[in-house]
Write a structure and sequence with these properties.
The structure is a homodimer of 131-residue chains.
Chain A (H helix, E strand, L loop, with lengths): L3 H6 L7 H13 L4 H11 L5 H13 L3 E4 L6 E4 L5 E5 L5 E4 L3 H10 L6 E6 L2 H5 L1
Parallel strand pairs in A: 3-5
Antiparallel strand pairs in A: 1-2, 3-4
Helix pairs in contact in A: 2-3
Chain A binds a DNA duplex (25 and 25 nucleotides) through α4.
DNA sequence: TTCTGTGCAAATCTTTTGCATGGCA
DNA sequence: TGCCATGCAAAAGATTTGCACAGAA
């Protein structure tokens, strides 16, 4: 486990207040979209520009500090962590982290060895099934 | 199994030459992006407009005739079929359909019952691992 | 004949780029 | 101090909208 400051210090990127605030926002929300990051970072950092958000999102992805979580509706980003699975609701676009079942892990590892894998399950969440 | 014509006939959408050609292109490629569809449909249908492609992609998704396949790089679409899994290469963005392992199916069904599920495995394909 | 679909143009939204200035190491 | 990062403005790219005409049912 690393702190956000350590993640930056161990990368080729410089530690700037903007980057710290962007990463804290992603960490706090679990999964954050560009607009969510921009709107919330602007509260603490009114002068920040959208271009800075985009540049940093790209740089942080290249350093593997954050990982895109893609849904059909909008892309979001999370702090890169151990392999885990996502459940994404097709209706409300909610993302839940789920335990990466070790049996599934074994099955996939057999077929796709040495693959840096991520598992996504797209479905309809319980709340939306009720509606 | 349904033909493309039947898919349209059973929907609320009218059957037009443009829609048939768009769907045939998606079927032929397995997974097609907006630009791929546009570039190839234009050969048969030089007057087609990008707006028509977008409007139809949205309409066909609402009718559940096509399903988005999302990758971190670009969105693509496929004809809606029985649940199956995708392997998407993080490097070259290639998409492979893979058999939906019945053991994985059972594990997911236990945790997410009655969920219209899709399985995605993001990793690095064999070709890109060599490089 | 009716009403949806098409195609064009314009509008809007999203993301990237260039450049002068500011700030971390 | 040197070089990378920021922020602005503009450019480029992607997607949506409005409207008149064409075409499926």
């Amino acid at each position: 486990m690393h702190t956000i400051k350590e993640l930056l210090a161990n990368s080729t990127l410089k530690t700037t207040p903007q980057r710290l605030v962007i990463l804290k926002e992603i960490e706090k929300r679990g999964h954050a979209s560009i607009e969510e990051i921009y709107e919330n970072v602007k509260i603490l950092f009114p002068t920040i520009s959208l271009a800075t958000i985009y540049k940093n999102i790209n740089a942080l992805q290249e350093e593997n500090i954050i990982t895109p979580v893609c849904s059909p509706k909008k892309s979001r980003y999370e702090i890169t962590k151990e392999p885990h699975a996502h459940f994404i609701c097709k209706e409300c676009d909610k993302i839940e982290d789920i335990i990466f079942d070790e049996n599934i892990d074994k099955i996939i590892e057999t077929k796709y060895p040495n693959s840096q894998k991520e598992l996504y399950i797209y479905g309809v969440c319980k709340e939306c099934q009720k509606g």
